[in-house]
Amino acid sequence: MRVLVVEDEKAIAKDLVQILREDGFVADWSCDDEDAFFRGANESFDAILLDLGLPAIDGKTILERWREAGITTPVIILTARDDWKDRVAAIDAGADDYVTKPFHKEEISARLRFVIRRSAGIAAANGALWFRDGILYGSSDKDVAAEFEIEPTRVTPMTAADFIL
Length: 165
Fold this sequence. Notes:
Elements: E1 2-6, H1 10-22, E2 26-30, H2 33-42, E3 47-50, H3 59-68, E4 75-79, H4 84-93, E5 97-100, H5 105-119, E6 130-132, E7 135-137, H6 144-147, E8 155-156, H7 160-164
Parallel strand pairs: 1-2, 1-3, 3-4, 4-5
Antiparallel strand pairs: 6-7, 7-8
């Protein structure tokens, strides 16, 4: 899974990239707001970690520009701003999640897996029912969020009326 880290503080970015790579992600880094906008709009990422406090263009503005351009890549805001108004503004601008610094490395990876699963239409990796391509599946032994290889334990074809009931 490929992730773009948009962070202007080199030490934080280096740590994030290392954490993500250790957890099996392919992590790219951008410290420049214009470069980040260009890469987010023109390259294929499974998710983006976006800092709000970038030097020239605020992360919220970059996010709004991506959404206006039709970019639907899941975006997790990663910022020191912990005011509820900032969280609401970022989510209203199109953020999929919001994490404040300092953070736990396990939480970042878990939230990335979460938003990537959701964007792929997979409700849960294990132990639950989920929909894909119009078919209801049972739990799978594989980590479907990581590999998107689906081996359903049970497939139940249904009409819309069956599903509602």
